[in-house]
Design a protein that fits this description.
- The N terminus is likely disordered.
- The radius of gyration is 22 Å and the shape is globular.
- The chain has a single domain, classed as TIM Barrel.
- The chain has 16 helices and 8 strands.
- Helix content is 49%, strand content 9%.
C-alpha cells in the first residue's frame, strides 16, 4: 500500500479479521477436482472459459504471481502451472500467511463439501481462534425429507402420501433439528439460499395448504426417482423453511445469513435483490438478518435496508475477487453511502481453493484502505474515524453480531 496515513494503512493491512462467511477448502486429494477458473467467476460450464478475460482475472493473476514468487510477467496458465507444483499444505499456509484471519465462520453445507472437502475443525490450523459453523437450512431440510421418505417407504403401509402426516412429521423434525443446532456451541448462525431456490420474495406467512401441497409434490417426485437428490423448488415450502428458521434464530439470538445478489446461472437475478425481503424483515424484528455478498449488483438496496432496520447488517464479501478492482471500490463506496459503518462486515466467501481466502483478504484490505483514505482526505472523515471503521468492518462488528466474545489477537 502507498499510505496517506501510516496507521490507517497498518490497520487495513494487518488488523486481525473475522471472516464472517466462508466455505471449506478442498482436501489435498481433490485439489484439482474443481476448475481453478471458479476462483474468479461464478460462471460455470462453457461460460467459465471466458472468465480468464475479465479484469478480475487479470488482477488475480498479478496478485497470485506475487504470492507464488513469480518475477516475470505471467498469464493465468503460468499461475496454474506454478500452483500445481506447490505442496498442498504449504500452499494453504502460504495463502493464509498474509490474510490475517483470526476466526472463520464456515458454511459447510455447500454441495460437494462432504465428498471433496476438509471438515470445519481442520481449518483451525490457519487461525488463532477456533472455526465456528454456519448451518445451511435448506440442506438440513432436504436431509430430513430424505430420512422421512425413506423411513416411510420401508413401512408396510406408508402414510406420508395421505396428507397432513407429511406436514406434521416434517415440521416436528425440522424444528427439533433447528433447536438442537441453535443450542450447539459451534453453531453461530444459520444461512439460507432461498435466493437460489425460489427467490427472496419470501411470504412471511405461507398458507398451510400451500405448504402441504408443496411437501406432497416433493414426496411425489422422490417416489418417482428416489435416487435423485432432493432439491426443494416449491415456493411455499421454501418460505416455510425460512420463516421457521427466522423464528427459532430470533429466540436463540442467532443471526440468519441470506445469499443476495451475485450468484451463478442457477439464480434468478431479478429476484436476488434484498429489497424483496423487506416484508420479511418487518415480520421478524427480533431476528438479525445478514445480507451477504454486498448484494451485488443491488448494493444500494442492501445499504438502504441496513440503514432503516436495526436488525439488518451488510456483508461486503464475494466481490473480492469476482469484481474488477475499480468495481470493488465502487461497491464499497455504495455500501458506505447509506449503511451505518458499524453495521458492515467483511468476508472472503472463501471456498475450495486456499487462494480464495488470500485474494478475498488482501484485495478487500487494499480496497478498504483506498476508499477510507480517499474519504479522510476529502469528505470530512477523520483519521481516527477511518481507523475505527476499518477495525469494525474487519473484526468488531462480526464479533458483536455473532456473539463470539473474542479479543483481537494483535
Amino acid at each position: 500500500m502507498t499510505p496517506s496515513s501510516e496507521s490507517l494503512a497498518d490497520v487495513c493491512r494487518t488488523y486481525p479479521a473475522i471472516d464472517n462467511h466462508a466455505h471449506p477448502l478442498l482436501a489435498a486429494a481433490h485439489r484439482t477436482a474443481v476448475p481453478f477458473e471458479g476462483l474468479v467467476s461464478e460462471a460455470d460450464g462453457a461460460a467459465l472459459a471466458d472468465s480468464v478475460h475479465t479484469l478480475a482475472c487479470f488482477a488475480a493473476t498479478r496478485t497470485l504471481a506475487q504470492l507464488y514468487g513469480l518475477t516475470k510477467e505471467v498469464v493465468w496458465d503460468d499461475v496454474k502451472a506454478k500452483r500445481d507444483k506447490i505442496n498442498y499444505d504449504d500452499l494453504c499456509a502460504l495463502c493464509f500467511r498474509d490474510a490475517h484471519i483470526q476466526c472463520i465462520l464456515l458454511d459447510d453445507g455447500l454441495g460437494g463439501v462432504q465428498e471433496m472437502s476438509e471438515g470445519f475443525r481442520w481449518h483451525d490450523r490457519f487461525t488463532k481462534s477456533p472455526t465456528r459453523r454456519i448451518v445451511r437450512v435448506e440442506v438440513l431440510a432436504q436431509d430430513i425429507l430424505r430420512e422421512l421418505f425413506e423411513a416411510d417407504a420401508a413401512l408396510e403401509e406408508p402414510v406420508l402420501a395421505l396428507g397432513d402426516a407429511i406436514v406434521h412429521q416434517f415440521s416436528q423434525a425440522f424444528q427439533g433439528r433447528m433447536q438442537a443446532a441453535a443450542r450447539d456451541e459451534d453453531v453461530v448462525a444459520f444461512k439460507s439460499v432461498v435466493c437460489y431456490r425460489t427467490g427472496l420474495s419470501v411470504n412471511p406467512r405461507p398458507p398451510s395448504r400451500d405448504v402441504l401441497w408443496a411437501l406432497l409434490q416433493v414426496y411425489s417426485s422422490w417416489s418417482a426417482d428416489s435416487a435423485t437428490e432432493i432439491r426443494i423448488a416449491e415456493k411455499a415450502l421454501n418460505d416455510y423453511i425460512v420463516c421457521t428458521t427466522l423464528a427459532i434464530a430470533g429466540d436463540h439470538n442467532k443471526p440468519v445469513q441470506f445469499h443476495t445478489g451475485l450468484g451463478d446461472s442457477d439464480i434468478t437475478l431479478a429476484l436476488s435483490s434484498p429489497a424483496h425481503l423487506q416484508s420479511t424483515i418487518k415480520a421478524f424484528p427480533q431476528t438479525t438478518f445478514v445480507l451477504l455478498h454486498s448484494s451485488y449488483p443491488y448494493t444500494r438496496d442492501s445499504g438502504y435496508l441496513t440503514a432503516v432496520y436495526p436488525n439488518v447488517f451488510l456483508d461486503f464479501g464475494e466481490i473480492f475477487p469476482f469484481v474488477s478492482p475499480g468495481g470493488q471500490r465502487d461497491v464499497l463506496r455504495q455500501v458506505m453511502e447509506l449503511a451505518p459503518t458499524n453495521k458492515i462486515m467483511w468476508s472472503t466467501d472463501g471456498h475450495w481453493w486456499p487462494e480464495s481466502y488470500h485474494l478475498g483478504s488482501v484485495q478487500a484490505r487494499q480496497a478498504l484502505f483506498d476508499v477510507l483514505s480517499e474519504y479522510s482526505r476529502g469528505s470530512g472523515l477523520t483519521e481516527a474515524q477511518a481507523i475505527q471503521i476499518a477495525k469494525n468492518a474487519l473484526f468488531h462488528t462480526a464479533n458483536r453480531v455473532y456473539g463470539l466474545s473474542l479479543s483481537p489477537a494483535l
